[in-house]
Specification:
Helix content: 25-40%
CATH topology: Collagenase (Catalytic Domain)
Shape: elongated
Largest sheet: 6 strands, mixed
CATH superfamily: Collagenase (Catalytic Domain)
Bound molecules: zinc ion
């Protein structure tokens, strides 16, 4: 029996607010005067990935994680609009932590999808202790490759050391990789992870 882990998908449209100065004219008696005021302009940065795209990325990830007999299944997929404090188009680590607090895992894994993310870890990032990860939409199969790696982190897998045998074919290689291999040690570790044990036999 595979270990089934529910995924709560959050498709986050990032609302970027910028301050601008607007000119306007007022009449004072017979004169008209130009005055200035500060205005906040808001612009949407949608995640460029819909539910079908999330499912396709999960299908890719599940094929990669199949040797561990772990299956991530989409339990929900909800669009949101969020203004991130001092946020830009590209979500940074502080923005990730803000979103992780807004959309914590309810009963499985919380998957945050945004248009662009500061690339500290391939194009995604994961917080194992909170079962939350974020990925940027990179198209097919790019998103799936990043998602599989981040789900690997949620299954307690660390990066493989650069230069170790077949390192750059391994799922947990910390850069773009040639393959998605898992070692027998990684398979055992993933199955014994806190997240997998929570759903084993359930
Ligand atoms: Zn990583």
């Amino acid at each position: 029996m595979p270990i089934r882990i529910p995924v709560e998908g959050h498709l986050v449209t990032v609302v970027v607010a910028t301050e601008a100065v607007e000119e306007y004219t007022v009449r004072v008696g017979r004169e008209s005067r130009v005055q200035h005021r500060r205005v906040t302009q808001r612009r949407d940065v949608p995640p460029r990935l819909d539910e079908a795209g999330v499912r396709s990325a999960l299908t890719y990830s599940n094929a990669v994680l199949a040797p561990a007999d772990v299956v991530f299944s989409l339990a929900s997929c909800v669009p949101h609009r969020e203004e991130i404090p001092s946020g830009q188009d590209r979500v940074d680590l502080a923005g990730f932590h803000f979103l992780a607090a807004r959309y914590p895992s309810a009963g499985g894994v919380s998957l945050l999808v945004v248009a662009d993310f500061q690339r500290t870890d391939l194009g995604g990032e994961a917080i194992e202790a909170q079962s939350v990860c974020i990925v940027a939409s990179l198209g097919d199969p790019g998103t799936g490759k990043v998602l599989a790696h981040e789900l690997g982190h949620l299954l307690d897998l660390a990066h493989v050391a650069q230069g170790s045998p077949r390192a750059n074919w391994n799922l947990m290689y910390p850069a773009y990789r040639a393959g998605d291999e898992l070692t027998s040690g990684q398979i055992a570790r993933a199955r014994g992870s806190r997240l997998a044990r929570r759903f084993a036999g359930g």
